[in-house]
Specification:
Layout: H1 8-12, E1 18-23, H2 37-52, E2 58-59, H3 82-98, E3 103-108, H4 114-127, E4 131-136, H5 153-162, H6 172-177, E5 186-187, E6 190-191, H7 213-236
Parallel strand pairs: 1-2, 1-3, 3-4
Antiparallel strand pairs: 5-6
Helix pairs in contact: 2-5, 2-7, 3-4, 5-7
């Protein structure tokens, strides 16, 4: 059930404690991809995963701005500080828990959010009246996770399957040629770079010309199947905190 599309009485009648919060970002994705890529993918995985789950689940509107200062040199990118982001997510989960939706999966589409989401989920679970876990869709696609770049073949394939009208396919080659093959600038397992503009001229990481709609459909299928399994696990898990040893 999409919370924003139903009346409060409809939502009040749902007998569930499960909720999903899609979390994305508004940031550059090369010259060919929309700034909202991470939000669009998180929302698509959330919807598809909930459809596959044999339980009632409340789905909130997506959080569209995240921890993305690493893309600040590219026009249109928006970001908030990690503290602001964590506080916002925590308040959203608290409001869900107030209505009885106190088992929450945070469905994430942006790599820059990963650390902050893990931290805030721990804070929520340890100190609030809720249990929360983060789920990042591109970590749940098997061996293809190694292909994840930025506006590269995975995200471009995903959008070809879900939002092809928002891609500029005529600029895929340009994106590849002005991008980089990998994320960061590494020496002895240390990433020397903090901003993406340090290693990619146009913001792209990976080769979007390798993308296909079929690959995107497969990615969505894998991520949705994994999310449904996580929702089942969250629904059934004992959430009482262990006692002091």
């Amino acid at each position: 059930m999409r919370l924003a599309e139903r009346s409060w009485t409809d939502v009040d009648a749902v007998e569930t404690d499960l909720a999903v919060v899609p979390v994305g970002s508004t940031e550059q994705h090369g010259p060919h991809g929309p700034l909202g890529t991470d939000t669009l993918t998180a929302r698509a995985v959330a919807d598809a995963g909930v459809e596959r789950c044999d339980r009632d689940v409340v789905v909130t509107p997506a959080i569209p701005v995240g921890v993305a200062e690493e893309h600040r040199q590219f026009t249109g990118t928006l970001w908030v500080a990690p503290d602001t982001f964590r506080a916002y997510v925590r308040d959203v989960v608290a409001s869900l828990a107030h209505h009885g939706f106190d088992r929450v999966v945070l469905v994430n589409g942006h790599g820059g959010n990963v650390d902050a989401l893990r931290e805030v989920a721990g804070e929520i679970t340890r100190h609030d009246e809720a249990y929360a876990v983060p789920f990042t869709w591109f970590d749940a696609v098997g061996d293809d996770a190694a292909e994840m770049g930025h506006g590269g073949p995975l995200e471009t394939s995903f959008l070809l399957a879900t939002h092809p009208d928002l891609l500029d396919e005529g600029r895929f080659a340009e994106a590849r040629d002005g991008g980089s093959a990998g994320w960061g600038e590494w020496t002895h397992r240390v990433n020397l770079a903090f901003d993406s503009a340090e290693f990619t001229e146009n913001g792209t990481v990976g080769d979007p010309t390798r993308a296909s709609e079929e690959w995107g459909e497969e990615l969505l299928d894998r991520a949705a199947t994994a999310l449904a399994a996580v929702l089942d696990a969250v629904a059934d898990r004992e959430t009482t905190r262990p006692p002091h040893r």
